[in-house]
Amino acid sequence: MEGVFLIAALTSILSVFLICLFLFVNGIPGMAKIGVFNFLLGTEWAPTDTPASFGIFPMILGSLYVTAGAIIIGVSIGLFTAIFLAKFCPERIHRVLKPAVDILAGIPSVVYGFFGIVVMVPFVRTYFGGSGSSILTASVLLGIMILPTIIGVAESAIRAVPENYYEGALALGATHERGVFFAVLPAATSGIMAGVVLGIGRAIGETMAVILVAGNQARMPTGVLGGIRTLTANIVLEMGYAADLHREALIATGVVLFVFILMINLLFSLLKRRQAR
Amino acid sequence: MTKNILIAFPVACAIMIGMIGCNEPLAFDKKREISVVTREAGSGTRGAFVELTGILVKVDGKKTDNTTKEALTIDGTQAVMSNVGGNEYAIGYISLGSLNASVKAISVNGVTPSAATVKDATYPIARPFNIAVKDSVSPLSQDFINFILSDAGQKVVEENGYVSVVQGNTYEPTKLSGKIVIAGSSSVSPVMEKLKEAYLALNPNVEIEIQTNDSSAGMVAAKEGTCDIGMASRELKESEATDLRAIVIARDGIAIVVNNKNPLKNITMATLREVYMGAIRSWEAVVE
Fold first, then answer.
1. Cβ-defined contact of B63 to A50 (cutoff 8 Å)
2. How far is B196 from chain A, CA to nearest CA, in Å?
3. From the list A50, A132, A241, which residue is nearest B61 (CB)?
4. Backbone torsions φ then ψ of B94, nearest 5 degrees
5. A47-93 pLDDT per residue, tens
6. Which of A51, A124, A269, B278 could anchor a disulfide with B68, C-beta 3.0 to 4.6 Å?
7. What ipTM score was computed for the predicted complex, to two decimals?
8. CATH no., domain A60-276
């Protein structure tokens, strides 16, 4: 019986290993052909031109900008929601609010994208100008999408703080708010940070919703109302039609994305370990 | 506390609903910026479009696609239509055969895009639909190709809004049996499905499987022999043409589409080029 469990456990490890292997074997030669610096820092993406240019710096920036925007929106709303859920919310409301947040996590990303394209894009176009497909729209949409991740992890981090921290604060004459914000919250910091990092991971890897609302222009960002193409969007948009070096460049884009995700996961486990200690 | 929440919730709902309600489009404002919509690099439709409009500039063996970097990049004909259909200030291009009422096709140089104008070559933006086979073709696949290029097959092409390319070939059913696998471009597959139906009506013992992915995948499959016939909505690349033989089965116009609220009816080729190259940024210069 133990063998069955072992095989099950090895399947996931094997998958990760195979994906790593596939990405690096297929992606590295392409990157070498283009030149690592030309590839990572090049600002021109014109795969169908002759000679072609394969610079993914605009897409790297695109992913970072959109993720940063999502974090600004997602963390500010998510953190307050988590504090509210853990420390302020009456049980009656918690019973409604918590499942609502969980539903948000279960909505497929293409549905978020559809909401974005039907509601948010025209809204931004009408009231802010531009075409509506922009960094702003994508950030807000992603911010909403990462809410459940941040709320879930942050709430359990806050709840994990021993009750005597809060009671001690009250005993020293602090109000409820002061006790929560200055005694409980600092103790939960590393747990909350872990939630934020997990949110970053989700935001940077999100594809479908972003493609629908970000405009996907492969050029350096021009402002919050201008569009942008992310790394994930670059792969999905062009994979279907790509051939030869173009295809290799897209797989190499996947390698860059994969390295980003690895770094984020590493950061996450470091934070987790610190929290455990 | 509870009371605050009871007030806050309806307020939040009202804001949300207000946001959705406020999306009522205003009247068409000529001063607004044009939202140029293009397809992703490598798409057959984009390749044909930039080549036919002269946006692709060839100098000394160098080819540069000068589509403006500000263009919204959207994958798929349907996605372009829903984007243009939802944005009063957008302009895009799609396969003429896929055109429907959700968007408005405009004339180019005064010529309305239609099967008739593509056929007599007055409509300037048209491209071939190719199938590609290896040099050694099985008798069954050859029979299907004969059917496609016959008058009966070309009639199917015309009935579906595309333009026929050859005339005068007759086809006699050979009553062969077996299986044909066809793979490739999603632009070509709708008409291929119709050709399949018509062919199977004449040859009931044949089985035809159509795998829809994209031009490049279709060419790779044909080259590697995982399919008998590949479909491409573009000319074959040099690396593909060494192993494969291309046969034009139909022609398709590329329609320039705008939102139904846009008053624009006609665009000159020169203006279209400038819009797509980013020289014209506002509708003022395009709409009279």
1. yes
2. 24
3. A50
4. -145, 165
5. 888 788 899 999 999 999 999 999 999 999 999 999 999 999 898 99
6. B278
7. 0.78
8. 1.10.3720.10
